[in-house]
Task: inverse folding
């Protein structure tokens, strides 16, 4: 790039380079616009959360987190994620194995259906479970007769969370597995390996970063989901409040410092998610050239 | 049939994994979603139409679609600048900025909602200067809704444009330059047409996301019926009044809009990749 064009002389090289990048003043303007836009829309809200969380000092901050209802909300959020993430991980592994390793009719439709929860807004995601299990829902009377509570109870919160985080792992793994192809697994099969052995020894090492990536994104959404959970929760303090719902209650009671203190937990989670995501992207990247080198050598 | 391509079935587990996939998909997604169709069908056309065209519902549609459109347009303009700067320029802290773009995906919407509200409230860091300088109120007005929707839609345009800008063929720009085109001309005639499908895709994804958004908007909106009430909030209000049919009717219209948008995006993408493959 820095070599002057052959036979062109200095003026033409300067001219062509000028035509290939923006004038310095435009460059600076674009950079400033980008930095200011991102600072106002992304950095400032994050700073606002932590500033207001520590507004009354560290003691008030930790007091807000130790408060019994906050603690119960934290436990419910952890429980919800501990159910939703493994379920969707199992689904993601099964779906990507079936879709990437085999040919069958209707695959395109199946892929569309797996993405469906992404197209459904959070409030509607919660609403469908109210329509199914709510007091006047399709199964409502039957559930009432058998004294089973799903809506305004923990099962409804878990179900709504499983729904909104449904595609995360599958969507991450399907393209990864499709790109890897079947050769290694077929070789293992020919050498006498069983299904579980093939999966654990051959497939899993190849897709581990994809699995981790999907789990990180799935977990962040599971712990932070607000709209869907808000519809099915009933907002019973200490019983059916997750962390985001507890933040809402505190905020609406004008207890801003406590609201931001509890919200800061979720902000920490978001920052940790971005960090982990970057690390995984960085770790997963060198794998591709290595594979290419192997193919060249073969 | 089974033996036609035997090598396809060398690997085990097809029946088990596909069976589990279909069962889980049906239980978690398809059966719950089908309740929308059942509820709508049991309602009848007359009441359905009356619900979705009542003045309060129409006001939420106008506000939700208008604010979402404005937010997606803002993201289209600034998202192009951000994507361009992140791909083409080098500056200190670039990787940090790049990672930060995904913050709206990672930050729970309720946290974004209270943070933005506190910033833009009349006594907030940004709300006070805006009020003093321009007399502009942001929080608890439609403008606040646009701010929240711009925040949550921010990554879509940037992330759809970035790979396309990376893949832009430098030779095409060089060719345009060697044929005498200035940078502005190259940008308008060569770069923008190449980016256009991804740009529209990013815009449509941000728009679709904004239409259904709830958590980040509900704190900053003010939630006054007919004025600052978004459709998602009205659905919740109807549900809390046990008006399941009304909530469903409003939701079905929003869902149809979202499916139409995302369907158009899919068609645009397959058209682009076909055109790319043919070229």
Result:
């Amino acid at each position: 790039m820095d070599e002057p064009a052959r036979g062109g002389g200095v003026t033409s090289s300067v001219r062509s380079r000028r035509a290939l990048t923006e004038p310095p003043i435009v460059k600076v303007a674009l950079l400033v616009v980008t930095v200011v836009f991102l600072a106002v829309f992304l950095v400032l809200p994050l700073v606002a959360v932590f500033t207001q969380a520590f507004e009354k000092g560290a003691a008030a901050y930790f007091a807000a987190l130790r408060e019994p209802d906050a603690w119960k909300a934290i436990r419910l959020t952890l429980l919800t994620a501990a159910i939703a993430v493994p379920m969707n991980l199992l689904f993601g592994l099964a779906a990507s194995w079936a879709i990437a390793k085999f040919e069958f009719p209707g695959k395109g439709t199946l892929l569309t259906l797996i993405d469906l929860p992404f197209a459904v807004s959070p409030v509607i995601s919660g609403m469908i479970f109210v329509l199914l299990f709510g007091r006047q829902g399709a199964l409502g009377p039957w559930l009432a007769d058998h004294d089973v509570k799903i809506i305004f109870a923990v099962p409804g919160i878990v179900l709504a969370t499983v729904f909104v985080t449904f595609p995360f792992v599958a969507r991450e793994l399907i393209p990864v597995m499709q790109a890897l192809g079947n050769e290694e697994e077929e070789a293992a099969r020919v050498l006498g390996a069983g299904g579980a052995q093939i999966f654990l020894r051959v497939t899993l090492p190849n897709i581990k970063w994809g699995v981790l990536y999907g789990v990180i994104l799935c977990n962040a959404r599971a712990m932070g989901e607000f709209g869907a959970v808000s519809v099915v929760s009933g907002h019973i303090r200490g019983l059916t409040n997750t962390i985001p719902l507890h933040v809402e209650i505190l905020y609406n009671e004008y207890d801003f410092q406590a609201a931001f203190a509890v919200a800061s937990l979720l902000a920490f989670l978001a920052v940790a998610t971005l960090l982990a995501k970057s690390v995984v992207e960085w770790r997963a990247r060198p794998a591709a050239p290595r594979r290419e080198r192997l193919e060249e050598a073969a | 049939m089974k033996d036609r391509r035997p090598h396809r079935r060398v690997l085990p587990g097809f029946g088990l994994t596909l069976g589990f996939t279909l069962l889980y998909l049906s239980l978690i997604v398809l059966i719950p979603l089908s309740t929308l169709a059942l509820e709508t069908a049991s309602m009848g056309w007359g009441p359905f139409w009356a619900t979705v065209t009542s003045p309060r519902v129409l006001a939420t549609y106008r506000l939700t679609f208008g604010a979402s459109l404005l937010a997606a347009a803002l993201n289209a303009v600034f998202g192009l600048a951000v994507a361009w700067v992140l791909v083409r320029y080098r500056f200190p802290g670039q990787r940090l900025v790049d990672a930060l773009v995904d913050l709206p995906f990672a930050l729970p919407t309720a946290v974004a909602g209270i943070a933005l509200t506190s910033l833009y409230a009349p006594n907030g860091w940004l709300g006070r200067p805006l009020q003093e300088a321009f007399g502009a109120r942001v929080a608890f007005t439609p403008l606040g809704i646009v701010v929240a929707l711009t925040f949550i839609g921010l990554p879509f345009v940037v992330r759809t444009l970035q790979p396309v800008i990376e893949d832009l063929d430098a030779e095409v720009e060089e060719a345009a330059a060697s044929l005498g085109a200035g940078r502005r001309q190259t940008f308008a005639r060569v770069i923008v047409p190449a980016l256009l499908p991804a740009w529209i895709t990013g815009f449509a994804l941000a728009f679709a996301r904004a239409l259904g958004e709830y958590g980040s908007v509900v704190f900053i909106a003010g939630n006054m019926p007919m004025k600052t009430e978004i459709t998602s909030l009205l659905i919740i209000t109807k549900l809390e009044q046990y008006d399941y049919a009304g909530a469903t009717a409003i939701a079905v219209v929003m869902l149809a809009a979202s499916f139409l948008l995302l369907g158009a995006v899919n068609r645009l993408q397959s058209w682009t990749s076909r055109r790319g493959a043919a070229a």
Remarks:
- Chain A touches chain B through 102 residues (CB under 8 Å).
- Chain A has two domains: 9-47, 56-297.
- The two ends of chain A are 34 Å apart (CA to CA).
- Confidence is low (pLDDT under 50) at residues 1-12, 287-298 of chain A.
